[in-house]
Amino acid sequence: METHVALLPSAGMGHLMPFLRLASMLASRNCKVTLLTAQPAVSSAESNHLNSFFTAHPHIQRLDFHVLPIHPSNPHHDPFFLQFEAIIRSVHLLPPLLSSLSPPISALFLDIAAATCVDQLSDDPSLSISYYILSTTSARFFSLISHLPHLTLEDHSKYSNKKLQLPGLPPFSISNIPPPLFNPENLFTTQLISNSRAISKVKGIVSNTFRWFESETIEALNSGNTSITLPQFLPIGPFKPYEDDGKCCSLSWLDEQPTKSVVYVSFGSRTAMSKDQIKELGEGLLKTTQKFLWVLKSVKVDKVEETGLEELLGSSLLGRIKEKRQGMVVKEWVKQEDILAHPAIGGFFSHCGWNSVMEAAQRGMPMLAWTLNGDQRFNAEVVEKAGLGLWPKNWGWLGERLVKSEEIEEKIEDLMQDHKLRSMAQKVGEEAIQAWEIGGTSEKVLGQIIEMLTLKV
Ligand code: UDP
Fold this sequence. Notes:
By secondary structure, the protein is of the alpha/beta class.
């Protein structure tokens, strides 16, 4: 019988994109795939992507999962975390949906952000399936998450210059741990801890990373020497782009620029900077001798993105950018993968969201890391260690201090002119390609996953 699997992404493009890529990879290996789509979606980017994905992949089945609304009195304001919560609280609606699928599914892939659903699902007698988690972060940050229920991080908050050493794992710098994790009451923390508790109940952790890139952590996670028992960690990255027919607005401008002359500036799908910081960034970009393509975001959720470029940048800055013809600023969604693949791009100034890191890694694209929140410092450590990028650590978390235009100027010049960095980044790209060649590390692990799904082992 045909192997049928279901995938349940949570909220935010950083979670949806890797699920769509995994769906397309599994479908290309002859699995029947059903993608559960939590409705209503938080952002327009998510709804638009889902629509174009299903149009381009008619063989992948869509199943809407209508989640229960979260009570408006919930004090947490991040709409993406509230959607994780809504999915988790609607878990009882899943068994009838999953049991209705034909042929019956053999496995469900859940997002790490909603992994706690496994607790309830695995107790349901109507479902006899295996569970996998798709980890949407680096192996390095996953290794911290996996140990969270056994840590009392608030005791460590005072020792920001110290390291946290957990048995069997490479040490963590305490200053790189996202600050909300030191507060046990924070929704980010409580969710991560309960998701982490579910890890031991799944068959495997599928991850968008590759052995060479994070070898020390991946080996540690699979060594059996950690203080807790973990399921198999299954690195199958870098995830490949999936087909769709959308076109990217900025490519015609890039076509006119010389090879490797443009720095691409983007801080992900949901990070909004203050107006003051946006202005320093703009001034910094203008001070450099480099061309730039800057994707600007001023709000977390694109549905409420109303402020125009002129209001954000001020007419003087915007006027000078236009006058010097040195850069292009856009406020709409771009196809980042197409931009990174364009020959005119020579560097990526990024927040180090994990998808962005892997998209840069597979193209050997040098990065400048400006880590703003969440897992990004852990991810930047990987980038720095592999030789893929530079990371000015004294820029702080988002909003901690105003990073001045001169600092930005200096680091962008380094990013674009450092020949050693360029050749090390190229080596990362070569290793990433090798991971996917026949017999390469990621190709082999994907084969192993398909075998586990088919044979139900
Ligand atoms: N992305 C994109 N266009 C945009 C902004 C983001 O294609 O204008 C994609 C990007 O390529 C990546 C994802 O959205 O795949 C963002 O995920 P990431 O983990 O890098 O950061 P997050 O948005 O979750 O902070």
